[in-house]
Structures are given as structure tokens and as C-alpha cells.
Amino acid sequence: MARDHPRDFFTPVPSAILEQYHRWQRVGGPAPSLLVFRRTAAGRVTAEGFPDEADVCEAMLSVLDPGVVRLERERLSITAANGVAVYVPVGPSPLP
Q: Model's pTM, two decimal places?
């Protein structure tokens, strides 16, 4: 979600990676865990779930709403209308 052009659906992964993600799902391969957000008509942002592990692209975080997704001291903080979460790095991501 770009700050000046909010979308109804967004994730902190580039669209090229999302295309690969969908291919992984179709062939039954290991797919990364994604955080998926939706913005309601009222402007509230909800997370579709809070996976135990989540893959993100650090470069994408700079264009997302910092009130929802932010990286501080190597911790990914999520604040959504339906909950909050903090993720810490645990290892390499399967994302390219």
C-alpha cells in the first residue's frame, strides 16, 4: 500500500515475488508465510492472520503505512485493527 495511493489489499512483498508464491502454491512446493492486510471502506486495516513466521521485503516496508507495518531495531511491528504482532528475524527467507 503506497502512502499516497491506499489499496484494499496489500502485503509487504513485491508483486513479482507474489507471482512466484502463487506458482509455489499450485505445484505444492514450500511457500513463504505472508502477511496479508485488507483496508475496509471505513479505512481500518485488518490482518488476514498472524502466521508464526512471516517473510517480508525490507525495501517494501518504506512504502507501506508506518502506522500498520514498521521495522524498528530489526523487529517487524504490525498494528492492525484485529491485533498486533512483533516478528524477529530467525533465519534466511525462502524468498529470492
A: 0.71
